Amino acid sequence: MTAPTPPPAVDISLAEARDIAVAAALPAAGFPDVTAALAHLHIIQIDSISTLARAHQLTLTARVPGTTTQDIEAALNASGEPVAFDYPAHALALVPLADWPLWAFRRRAARRRPDYPDQQTRAALISRITRDGPLPLRRLRAEAEAGAGWDWSPTKTAVEFLLWAGDITCTRRTGGQRLFDLAERSIPAAYLTDHTTDDDCLSQLLTHAGTVLGVATTDDLADYLRIPASVATRVLPATALIPVRVEGWGTSWADPKALEGAVHPFREPVFLGPFDNLIWHRPRVQRLFGFTQVFEAYKPAARRIYGYYVCPLLADGRLIGRADFARRDTILTIQRASLEPAAGPDAATSFAHACRRLTAATGQAAIKLAGPATDAATASLLGGFGRQQSQPTDQP
Prior knowledge:
- The chain is an alpha+beta fold.
- Helices cover 35% and strands 18% of the residues.
- The protein is built from 15 helices and 15 strands.
- The chain has a six-stranded mixed beta sheet. A four-stranded mixed beta sheet has the order 1-8-9-7. A three-stranded antiparallel beta sheet has the order 2-4-3.
- Strand 8 and strand 9 (250-254) form a beta hairpin.
- Helix 10 (198-213) packs across helix 11 (218-225).
């Protein structure tokens, strides 16, 4: 049953919505540690591409001041107790342990799917993990079994479904490889429950999504959890979010706390990883910033407009440009870059500052343009980055 949606009580301009959104996703002061950032975002996307850094590392170093990608891995995998589990929440993502009960609706749905592994397959994998776990996939896969990348082997398919269903989980990595273990051995007993109803799960998760987005359409909120918009429409009136009217959007939803007092969005120039929570949903990015977000790593090189692993530049609460980055030895290489038409007079300074911040976060020793791959306009824009530079410690 769908509760009636009350009429919007607040009108918000597009500029206000943008400030609220940036402040919600990247609070101005950042977070004291990885656990706090994870607890706020609730979902941090994971991706296998490591041309620059792993997706979750970029998301977290942008929010925990002064941290490096190595710090992030130590916090996730080397501390005494795990802080997150892997789950297909948005895409495959890190989720705080305390949120385990809220994904019961998706675990139940996974067990109802026709391609959920049969009892014999489940029993064999669980028996092996019970005896020898936690184990990486390569130890679970039969020696003669093919399958890599997008071509999933039968074992990988079964393991992913068991993860989805909550029969097994992953709370640690070693050498970049996920370690699979029984849920009862890796999820604290206080959280290990499937008793929360579907609607209670969804109501709490949508409230979390609204807190991270600040202000959002129903479609934005549904995308955060990868649920149908029709389901979000039904459940949203039961959440802690309130309906508002945003200029150009119509009726939307806002976190009440985001509307209290002055808004302080993140202002320091920073490159966002292409899987950052602020830019997940491309229609929302276009509505908020007038910025066309694309990810072209899986396109043939000749069809790429901006590059392989492109990071948007956030400065003064706006997306003002982008750059294609890669790590080569100990050098952060800028392969291609561009600014938006209305980037402003301080854009080059912001670009340089964000480059230096990214260099420090990824543990590189220098910054360099790619040379032949960079056109004259980009070289002019980046000025001194046309030659290799050691990482400075002062402000640009």
